[in-house]
Design brief:
By secondary structure, this protein is mainly alpha-helical. The protein contains 2 helices and no strands. α1 packs antiparallel against α2. The longest helix is centred in the middle third of the chain and has 135 residues. This is ATP synthase subunit b.
């Protein structure tokens, strides 16, 4: 066996293998690598876009929270004003009711006092008539008259 022939055969096999590899093996590997690189680039672009969208969404959330807080403050202020108005209205109504009740009670008390006075007048008149009748039935005597008047005073 000759070393030159073996070396020449190995050289021919190497070049045939290199040509077959370059023609049939290398293009699918290069294509797969290119597709993988494209997918990675698309993923990075999507991540950048998502990051930008996240920043915009955070800004929007902050703005919405601020608006919600302002709205809540406005609603609270309106509710406090309405509550104060209702309290004032209730106080006014209560004052009117108390005044009306006081006036009615004063009228009723005045009417009851007037009725009591009338009753007392009738009783005094009856007692006066009864006293005069007793005085007239008895004989005229200063001592007896004084005793009768004293009895009348005790009955009143």
């Amino acid at each position: 066996m000759n070393l030159n022939a073996t070396l020449f055969a190995q050289l021919v096999v190497f070049f045939v293998l290199a040509l077959v590899t370059m023609k049939f093996v290398w293009p699918p590997i290069a294509k797969a690598l290119d597709e993988r690189a494209k997918k990675i680039a698309d993923g990075l672009a999507a991540a950048d876009k998502a990051k930008t969208d996240l920043v915009l969404a955070e800004k929007k959330v902050v703005d919405e929270l601020r608006k919600a807080r302002e709205s809540a403050t406005d609603v609270r202020a309106g509710a406090e004003k309405q509550a104060a108005a209702l309290i004032d209205e209730a106080r006014g109504e209560a004052a009117r009711i108390v005044a009306a009740a006081r006036e009615a009670a004063e009228k009723e008390a005045g009417a009851a006092m007037q009725k009591a006075k009338e009753g007392l007048r009738e009783q005094v008149a009856l007692l006066a008539v009864a006293g005069a009748e007793r005085i007239l039935r008895k004989e005229i005597n200063a001592q007896v008259h004084a005793d009768l008047l004293a009895n009348l005073k005790q009955e009143l």
